[in-house]
Amino acid sequence: MSVKLNKKIAAVAAGFLMTVALPGAGLTADTIKIGVAGPHSGDLASYGLPTVNAAKIIAEKINASGGINGKMVELLIEDTVCKPEIATNTATKLVSDGAQMILGGICSGATKAALPIYLDAGLLVISPSATNPPLTQSGEYPNFFRTIAPDDAQAQLDVDFAIEKMGYTKIAVIHDKGDYGKGFAEFAKQFIEASGKAEVVLFEGVTPGQVDYSAVVQKVKQSGAETVIFGGYHPEASKIITMMKKKRLDATFISDDGVKDQTFVKVAQENAEGAYASGPKDTSNNPLAQQAVQEHKDMFGTDPGAFYENAYSAMLAMTNAAANAGSTDLAALKKALQTVPVETPLGSITFDEKGDAIGVGFSVYQVQNGEWVELK
Amino acid sequence: MDYFIELFFSGLSRGAIYALIALGYTMVYGIIGLINFAHGEIYMIGAFTSFIVATILTILGLPLLAIIVLTGIAAVVWSASYGYTIEKIAYKPLRHAPRLSALISAIGMSMFLQNYVLLAQTSDFLPFPTLIPDFAFMEPIAHIVGSTDLVILITTTVSMIFLTVLIKYTRIGKAMRATAQDRTMAMLVGINVNRVISATFVIGSSMAAIGGLLIASHIGQINFYIGFLAGIKAFTAAVLGGIGSIPGAVLGSVVLGLTESFATGYVSSDYEDVFAFSLLVLILIFKPSGLLGKADTQKV
């Protein structure tokens, strides 16, 4: 019995040694190792896997054309399941495996947990999807960049649109009490107050699914607001805008990308006409975006998923910076990212000193004849 | 003052909406002492039936009045048959089981119906056709009371009168009251209790179907989940007014609607539910059987 057990242990130990020994073999070749961290299993896998695909596509393209300054790109793909406690383990593993740059952090929470480990190791991190504002704005993570606009960018854009472009001075801010809607509404309120040119005449939350919103609409009317900024999703937005029209309230309606959805127009019908909402900039006319989608179809046979274009752009920015910097030293990479523009599916981008991509963001759309039209 | 009147009518029409649903809760409770949690779903099915029929009839190009009448009839018939069937499948076999069994069965039925509509139809929100036009004569006061509000208020009043007459003066109404008072005794004097119970479900479901039709055309959208919150609020209203009492259900609904409306208007809509449920707790502390409920301890 004990002999058998010993044999088993020996076999397991041998297997373990072999797996540990394997990465060591890679060190001899001259490669640039890019760690890809994100949820590759679990319920948020659909947010992480498109990034892996984007990384594979670009790595293959670069390697086929001779690598970055002659060095082949090697991907180290590790799962974080979007859980902070696992993301720290993943980060430690990637650092010890010799990763030189990191593509990822998909979820803000898991990314934040892993960032100090990457920072200690001096690794550049570019996320395609972590939108939590402090990740860049706090200045705590000088190694962190992202190719998606932070959460407050939409609120800033909508507030600028309402105050600067439309000249409104009395604004009602309404939200659906959810994380997303309320977060947006609080940013909007903060920006309106900071502007000094307009006042928040009403700040209220409504209960999603409530049978009707006529009382809150009456309250908006009483407040004398010229526009309603709404944070939330399209079901409540279409109910509120329908009730605004029914109660003959002629304030305009401005909302977020949870509302900028064709369902909103379909459900609110003619009441939706003229409503404004911010949403990601339309990239469908960008030839690089079309090419990126086509490459995905060629390699994987399907349409790409969430954050694919952001991930594609992040990978391009990262590899481009490495080529321009001539090394993977963090200071050199940062300088390249901040100074050399790179053509991506999201347009031509550079990064500001905090790490947010300049030129990536949101546009204001308006419902015109039953379609969302981007306002230039 | 204008603001007060606006809020008053907002609350009144919301209360009327609750009342149409609350009537079904209170009638069923009055007759068999069961809280029919699937009632909110009957309302949702009424709205969906109205949506399908109204869409088809609109495509066929019928005049608006014909569409409203035919849609109403279809929704009532379809929902009533659901109410009838639910009672036969989920509640009748449990009539002599402990009360809790029937209650669990009702909750199960509610979940079943929600998911059934989700799978058979869609999880998306659907645009409900504008069945009630903006009346020209309402235009001067449209910012206070809309045309749909008016139709809801009138329909609720008519339904209420119809129900009162039905229960007070007809044979089936007398049988219902007898069954509510004492089921065994009613059976002994020759009342077909099963038929009375079925009739109660059919009438309650019809009311909910009318509610579904009106509310859907009021707010202009439906999905499979609308029955949940509306059902909870209507149930609250029924308890507030005294469950088992028909005038109580209407009074409770109006009180609840007005409370929510004024709480939103003068305090904050963040707290409308806090006010609504605080009111419920207060009333139940001082009058445990509700505003118009009979203090009838043997039922509980």
Briefly say what this structure is.
The complex is a heterodimer of chains A (376) and B (300). Chain A is α/β, with parallel strands linked by helices and 376 residues long.
Question: How does this model look, in words?
Answer:
The complex is a heterodimer of chains A (376) and B (300). Chain A is α/β, with parallel strands linked by helices and 376 residues long. In chain A, 48% of the residues lie in helices and 20% in strands. In chain A, the strands form three sheets. A seven-stranded mixed β-sheet of chain A has the order 7-6-8-9-10-14-15, with helices on both faces. In chain A, strands 2-1-3-4-5 form a five-stranded parallel β-sheet, with helices on both faces. In chain A, strands 11-12-13 form a three-stranded antiparallel β-sheet. In chain A, strand 8, helix 9 and strand 9 form a beta-alpha-beta unit. The radius of gyration of chain A is 24 Å and the shape is elongated. The N and C termini of chain A lie far apart (77 Å). The relative contact order of chain A is 0.12. Chain B is mainly α and 300 residues long. In chain B, 74% of the residues lie in helices and 1% in strands. Chain B has a two-stranded antiparallel sheet with strand order 1-2. In chain B, helix 6 crosses helix 8 and helix 9 runs parallel beside helix 11. The model of chain B has no long low-confidence stretch (mean pLDDT 90). Chains A and B meet through helix 8, helix 9 and helix 10 of A and helix 1, strand 1, helix 8, helix 9 and helix 10 of B.
